[in-house]
Amino acid sequence: MTEPIVIESITAEIDAPADFVWQVLVDYPRYPEWNPYTVQVSTTLDIGSPIDLTVPAMDGSDATFVNREYVRVVDPPRHLRYDTDDDVPGIFAFRDQWIDPLGDDRCRYRTTDTFSGAHAERLLAATGPWIKAGFDAVARALKHRAEQLWTSGP
Questions:
Q1: Nearest 5°: phi and psi at 143?
Q2: Dihedral pair phi/psi, residue 121, rounded to 5°
Q3: Phi, psi at 66, each rounded to 5°
Q4: I need a surface site. Which of 10, 89, 94, 150 has the fewest CB within 10 A?
Q5: How many CA atoms lie within 13 A of 84 on its CB side?
């Protein structure tokens, strides 16, 4: 077995409270308004339940596909985790999204995806840069969205 491979986003420092950023992060019906990498999400966020993530095609076309994973950790406002379970033979992946408070009105966001299994290295050779670019885009977009909503008020 090979060592797990981790893809990590940039870290976005956000001028809004962690609780508020968490609410933006899990406001899935509004993802089409701001999230460039996960354009739609369907989930109850119950532990063990599916989370269907609609993402754009890697070729840059208008096509999308649904990636089903399973919710494992919901720890507001700090940590969200979901994984592929054993749905894809030879590949196991889990994604963590972290929000770290930096004071009353600031926080830091980052996400990681950890891949393991017999086919993980081959999969990431083909998709790793696309995943990294998508994660970075989400971090930037979440920062922009949360700060915009925070400064505009309710």
A1: -60, -50
A2: -65, -45
A3: -105, 130
A4: 89
A5: 17
Residue 105 one-letter amino acid = D
**How many domains would you assign to the chain?**
1
Per-residue pLDDT of the chain (154 residues; tens, 9 = 90+): 468 999 999 999 999 999 999 999 999 999 999 999 999 999 999 999 999 999 999 888 899 999 999 999 999 999 999 999 988 889 999 999 999 999 999 999 999 999 999 999 999 999 999 999 999 999 999 999 999 999 997 5
List the CATH number of the domain containing 87.
Answer: 3.30.530.20
Domain limits for position 89: 5-152
> Which token pair is 57?
């095609």
Tokens 């083909």 belong to 126
The structure tokens listed for 114 are: 């950890």
Q: How far apart are CA 114 and CA 107, in angstroms?
A: 23
